């Protein structure tokens, strides 16, 4: 009988986890598992993302023998213990089989011998900060910190105080002094200051920063107080140039935190902000680099007792005081492509790209069809509930009607009315496979060249599809193709994304603060983002044209743009699954009021039965004449 057959059920389960873990490790890190005992031990389910600290591993494994090193990698669910001799490693392996760790630590580790350990990469190793960034550690004393925290608690108790602007955002609690910051427009109303100015207790700290840095000829007149509970954060952003002058001061109270900085070239610098420190952003770090705090309950930080090796830090409640100077004149900084003052669009007409058919097709191939192939599973996981008015359109069709769903996606509208015959169509093979797995009829085809005879359908629906076409002519051809498929008297329902997200029947769900997207989540300086069409880092060049990148959950500044989609990528090792984000960019042309009607005016034998606005979309029901 083989050794594997002699294992207990528990041991066989552990063996399978070890094998799976080692296969993933070999594929991604080039580290191989070995049968022969070695000093190098892989600790599966023992990484930083599993909530394990370096001190935990040192305490547990040092009882088996002397340890040369413990290697923990950021974002990984595993770690490595390097023993000074093989006998110690064998003792640790035996303890793992007996599940000693589960008994003592209430946590299961899965150990394997490996041939080497990876090179330790410490993201804080260089110690270099973005240009213009100043970090003053231990800026406040414990007593000064306590006074500011008590001030925050005192203001929080005044729930009926109309002089203090207090908001509760998804990611944190926010209060404003001096001037209110509008998160929808990313600006301040300079002509309407708040009744409550910056508390006088803060003045001494601001004056001290003036003396230390020689900066801030004018004292800040706007303060934002953010309160972060463990696990809360604020997404990457750049404070609006036109709203505030150069120089932003942020005091960290109650807990240390890691703030992530990134420049347009993609360079990423994590900065550990100690408790009671002062962070000052000027010049390039203020105008060019985005900054944000990743929502999580722990941070990987250098362990000062182990030569900069990483360990886990648990976050506590953190309060930040962020001071700015409200700008009164146009910004003329040295970063014009990031500056909204210098890059305003002159008219709505300039916001629409004028592409040749070849360019438009290239944009769609890269930023529509290829993207949906990559995100199909994740996209499908987010699309379950039919839009009520679309479902109502299908429900009132006569029994036996033949209905085509053009651009059906994951088929969420198919099979819901058992009295009609429904067939779906999509260009994405991945989405088509998802539909097939659900048992609905679907075929693959291009919207502009559908392989069906004319007058084949009693009705068509085309929901959230035509806005992915990159030229006016191609959008017109798509509607003509829908009309071609309809029998006389047949109707088509078309939905396209509306540019007017905040003017028709109030703001749409897309703009609701309670549903802020991760790509538009904001900062220690409160959720501020410069308009992406003005950012060099937010423009992609493709097919001889430049496409601006929209900031999610904000009003549209232009009609043609790329909209980010963030997909979770599995990088699982052993039983612990971690996720890394990958961002894709989908092309959209958002429609202005009346635009889709004007397209249909040029099509013969068609009448508009109804047009309406539905939760951020322009919608139209057209009918083919007899």
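Sequence proposed for the structure above (626 residues):
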């Amino acid at each position: 009988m083989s050794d594997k057959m002699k294992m207990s059920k528990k041991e066989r389960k552990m063996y399978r986890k070890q094998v799976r873990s080692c296969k993933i490790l070999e594929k991604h890190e080039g580290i191989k598992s070995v049968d022969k005992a070695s000093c190098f031990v892989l600790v599966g389910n023992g990484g930083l993302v599993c909530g394990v600290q370096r001190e935990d591993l040192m305490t547990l494994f040092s009882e088996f023998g002397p340890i040369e090193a413990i290697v923990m990698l950021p974002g990984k669910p595993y770690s490595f213990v390097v023993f000074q001799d093989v006998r110690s490693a064998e003792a640790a392996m035996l303890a793992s089989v007996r599940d000693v760790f589960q008994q003592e630590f209430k946590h299961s580790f899965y150990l394997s011998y490996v041939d080497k350990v990876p090179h330790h990469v410490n993201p804080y190793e260089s110690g270099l900060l973005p240009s213009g960034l100043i970090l003053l550690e231990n800026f406040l004393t414990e007593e000064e910190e306590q006074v500011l925290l008590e001030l925050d608690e005192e203001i929080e108790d005044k729930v009926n105080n109309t002089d203090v602007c207090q908001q509760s955002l998804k990611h944190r609690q926010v209060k404003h002094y001096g001037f209110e910051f509008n998160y929808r427009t990313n600006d301040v109303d300079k002509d309407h200051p708040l009744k409550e100015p910056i508390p006088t207790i803060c003045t001494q700290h601001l004056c001290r920063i003036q003396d230390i840095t020689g900066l801030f000829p004018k004292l800040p007149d706007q303060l934002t107080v953010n309160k972060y509970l463990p696990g809360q954060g604020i997404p990457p952003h750049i404070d609006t140039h036109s709203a505030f002058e150069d120089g932003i001061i942020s005091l960290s109270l109650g807990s240390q935190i890691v703030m992530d900085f990134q420049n347009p070239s993609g360079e990423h610098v994590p900065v550990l902000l100690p408790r009671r420190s002062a962070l000052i952003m000027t010049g390039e770090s203020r105008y060019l680099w985005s900054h944000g705090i990743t929502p999580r309950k722990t941070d990987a930080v250098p362990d000062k007792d182990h030569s900069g090796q990483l360990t886990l830090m648990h976050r506590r409640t953190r309060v930040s005081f962020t001071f700015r100077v409200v700008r009164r004149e146009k910004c003329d900084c040295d970063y014009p492509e990031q500056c909204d003052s210098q890059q305003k669009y002159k008219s709505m007409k300039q916001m629409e790209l004028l592409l040749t058919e070849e360019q438009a097709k290239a944009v769609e191939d890269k930023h529509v069809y290829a993207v949906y192939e990559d995100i199909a599973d994740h996209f499908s996981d987010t699309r379950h509930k039919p839009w009520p008015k679309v479902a109502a359109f299908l429900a009132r069709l006569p029994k036996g009607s033949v209905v085509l769903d053009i651009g059906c996606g994951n088929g969420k509208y198919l099979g819901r009315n058992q009295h009609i015959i429904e067939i779906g169509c999509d260009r994405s093979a991945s989405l088509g496979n998802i539909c097939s797995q659900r048992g609905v009829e679907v075929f693959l085809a291009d919207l502009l060249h559908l392989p069906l005879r004319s007058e084949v359908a009693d009705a068509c629906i085309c929901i959230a599809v035509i806005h992915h076409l990159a030229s006016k002519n191609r959008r017109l051809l798509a509607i003509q193709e829908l009309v071609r498929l309809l029998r006389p008297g047949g109707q088509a329902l078309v939905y396209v994304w509306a540019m007017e997200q905040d003017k028709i029947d109030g703001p749409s769900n897309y703009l609701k603060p309670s549903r802020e997207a991760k790509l538009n989540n904001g900062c220690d300086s409160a959720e501020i983002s410069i308009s992406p069409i003005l950012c060099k880092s937010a423009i992609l060049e493709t097919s001889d044209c430049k496409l601006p990148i929209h900031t999610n959950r904000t009003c549209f500044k232009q009609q043609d743009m790329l909209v980010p989609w963030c997909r979770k990528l599995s990088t699982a090792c052993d039983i612990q699954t971690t996720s890394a984000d990958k961002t894709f960019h989908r092309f959209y042309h958002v429609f202005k009021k009346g635009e889709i009607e004007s397209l249909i005016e040029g099509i013969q034998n068609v009448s508009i039965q109804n047009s309406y606005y539905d939760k951020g979309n322009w919608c139209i029901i057209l009918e083919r004449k007899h």
